[in-house]
């Protein structure tokens, strides 16, 4: 990882919790679909430098509004704080839909790593609210069980989480047929979040007949972000294509 990216991630970790809700609005006066983005960071930081701002800027270039959510982390990350932050952000976005020229019939929620867990788990708990057209999960943490990312679980649930909470926050255990369509990708060389997380999620979605597309890239590790210059860099366009195919 480059020194500049390490410094940017450190700055993100120190930044007060806030919502980047107006940074990536298109200014052409037209209504556009939009994406809500939750970067990763193990619930210990919000890694916008690699999984927030670059995604938002690329979505802008493709003609989409984008919003980056800076949810609570570290000692403020205990459940349900991050999930409540995402809920509040979505509510605020919808409250400004007319002012910000948002197409509320065509929107997606993106999450990377622990941000993927936040997105995936949030949508198992918030049925009956506004349902996104699609989810985009990038090398996500899915389970809080045996194959979880320990740092994410410790920050979210504490080191002594009981089995009830572990199951409640394991997205693969709580999928229903009305769950949003989901695009998921991961790399086979991911030694931070076990690829089994994606495999369990894909199986749960399939069992409930939820539209799902899973892409696997050989030799790609964790935290690749846009994965520029690798075989995985096509994932972004594929994710947008999947999203739009669900309209």
Notes on the protein architecture:
By secondary structure, this protein is an alpha/beta fold. The protein contains 9 helices and 7 strands, in the order αββααβαβαβααβαβα. It has helices at 3-14, 48-51, 53-61, 81-95, 114-125, 150-157, 163-168, 196-207, 235-245; strands spanning 18-24, 32-38, 65-70, 102-112, 134-138, 182-187, 212-217. Strands 1-3-2-4-5-6-7 form a 7-stranded mixed β-sheet, sandwiched between helices. It is globular. The N and C termini lie far apart (37 Å). Residues 1-17 have low confidence and may be disordered.
Relevant terms:
seven-stranded mixed sheet, 7 strands
Write the layout of secondary structure elements.
Elements: H1 3-14, E1 18-24, E2 32-38, H2 48-51, H3 53-61, E3 65-70, H4 81-95, E4 102-112, H5 114-125, E5 134-138, H6 150-157, H7 163-168, E6 182-187, H8 196-207, E7 212-217, H9 235-245
Parallel strand pairs: 2-3, 2-4, 4-5, 5-6, 6-7
Antiparallel strand pairs: 1-3
Helix pairs in contact: 4-5
